[in-house]
Amino acid sequence: MSSPPPDTPRRRPTIADVARRAGVSAAAVSFAVNDRPGVSSVTRARILAAARDLGWQPSASARALTEARTRAIGLVLARSAAQLEGDTFFLRFLAGIEEVLTAADYALLLQIVPGEASAALPAYERLAAAGRVDGFLLTDVEAGDPRFALLSGAGIPVVLAGRPVGRAPFPWLETRHDEGIAPAVAHLAELGHERIGFLCGRPEFEHQRVREVAWRSALLEAGLAPGPLGHVVFDAPAAALTVLQEEPTAVICSSDALAVELYLAARSLGVAIPGDLSVIGFDDSTLARYASPALTSVRVDYAEFGAAAATALLAAIAGEPAPDYSPSVPELVVRASTALRRRR
What we know:
By secondary structure, the chain is α/β, with parallel strands linked by helices. It is built from 14 helices and eleven strands. A six-stranded mixed beta sheet has the order 7-6-8-9-10-11, with helices on both faces. Helix 8 links the parallel strand 3 and strand 4. The radius of gyration is 25 Å and the shape is elongated.
């Protein structure tokens, strides 16, 4: 008679098992068992009961890590390498962040996640659950942003670098970037342009939507009807061509990179800049200075913005109110891509 097979060793429960049992995120489990704020007493009790039922306990080393300050803040960017290559905003924004963090003996934990914004959600959850950062900066704030629900239950300080759509569970700050559109429209109107188009990014991003609203408002103020509008979702060259096919005499672009795409599209159609078409970019990047012809562009102090965002987050981590932030006014830098409207 053969003896019964030995019992198969049971797998040790994990934090993910507890999260599934309690119906919460792994980050919420971490905050509940470490008695950190941000989890309600009812949810905390449910999490602790699930952990007890499963026989799960955080390791001593994990508990030590989560109880201590990491002296790091997290920033997760949903960007491809190609997108980052021409993204002047983030280069300057990061420089401002690093200036403040270095002075405060903090570090920036930066993760680049290719794809859409939703692809970054697991990265936020992993960083929060592991206690690797003391707080997060959120950029690219959009309508119905899924990060709000994820991080509001994690009890970790968060600051939004950008205006939210409607109410948000976190403090936010913003540049006055939209105020750079009105001077651009006024400059073109003074040159005699009446059909002024706009080429911008995806409207679900609040900073793009706000610039589009500013463009419409400035045209209304100047007594002009809106010219052709192009939204870049996946294909910037196609959006640029669509705008040009409606024959504007001038186009404002929401970034210098989009202005360069417009240059290429205009060249393919035999449209001369600035003879047939005046173009204004946004960001005043290196692209603006080295484009041919040199690009008129709106300059925003993104380094100042990054420094203010980092300062606000460090204050939130310390449980203190954020200092006042008075962003500088954008500046229109006029170069060779704008000229008097040529009468047709």
